[in-house]
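Researcher: Please translate sequence to structure tokens.
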Amino acid sequence: MKVSDIIDDCEVDIKEKIDYIFNSFQKDFPNIRYDERISIVGIGEPEKHLLCYFRKNTDGSIVVKFKGAESAISLLTEISEMSSYIQKTVELFQINDFSLKQKQRRQKRESKKKAEKKIVPASPLAKCDLVVQTQQTPGVVLFENYEQLKASISTAVSYYLGFEYTLENYKTARQHYKELKSAKNVLEKTKREIVNGYNAPLELVKEQIDELINIIKEPLKRVDVFIKGNKTKTKRYDIYIFSKDLAISYGLQEHMDKIFKSPAFFDIRWLNTSYSSKKWQKEITKKLENAVKDISYILSMENENKAIILAQYYQTLSMPQVEEFIRTINQASSVLEKKTVPDASQVLNWMVADGQSTHNSDNIIQNMDWKDFEILNHIADSMNPYTGEIITGIDEELKARLKEIAGKIKICEFEV
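Model: Translation complete:
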């Protein structure tokens, strides 16, 4: 689609909106231009993702989709609302590279890994020539008097075959049995001797090859034990490398270590052999994409507790929990600024609304005039001092920091 397809055919007010978007982005990104694609026209810098793009619907209306926004919006949207989208997009691009060369870098990393596999030095055993050289002459045993012995035995056996055995010649039958049994034993013994003699060189070679195999078995077992024992560690390392490279490409260098240490980041299921790399890579990508938007939003806030809020986000990676934490801090700060003590009925109403017990309401009411350091100490102990409400999601590092600040404030108050 060409720029003219969008701009030339649109109404004057729509064209003014498009010019407004372009000029707003140009303040922060002087090198932007209109980028024509197959079905859209976008605004962006060369070799980078589009800041936004325009699309004409089947009904002729034109919509704009900003990078990071969940959906496209109509160009009939008010300038004030559109400015909010523009500002969020600018912040998103300021903390991210969004280079179209990311794919090339990923391909380069994969090629490097393949190259590293190829240049692994061969072990001494891999250089060994394992061809076993032997001299074999099959069928060298010749039965030289077979026909003569066969004729002799056949003639002798015919005597026994024609003999009529009765009870009267029972002793003769026993004698014949001994003679036939003896002849059979002689031939079987001879057969074993010949076979054993013929197989003796083969058995020796078999023993020698088994000895060579046993020499290899010892290091083979050692390596096998190592591989099986570290299979999970290897996968965890692969996950870390993928996460690190992706976080850097998203511009999260200064945040990624704290994100990776967050209890909310790593999913133990990723280590399962049945969990495909495609699946855990998709989930990590989603977590880091959310982190980019969330951190950008927190840093843009006009709040003196921004550092504490960011620390809370590192712990949970959840904006809903962070927003709840902000409300708790704001509520405590508001009460502190007003320096007013709510009456007992108001406190009880708060506690009932939060589903808490009212058994200790008298104690709470009696201590409503908290000092600054006492308020921080209560928050560090996961409790709102004015409502008795339990504050969840505060990590130990943040609690320790609040305790430290409370201690300094307490010392200052006493000195005054």
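Researcher: Any highlights?
Model: Residues 339-345, 354-368 have pLDDT under 50 and may be disordered.
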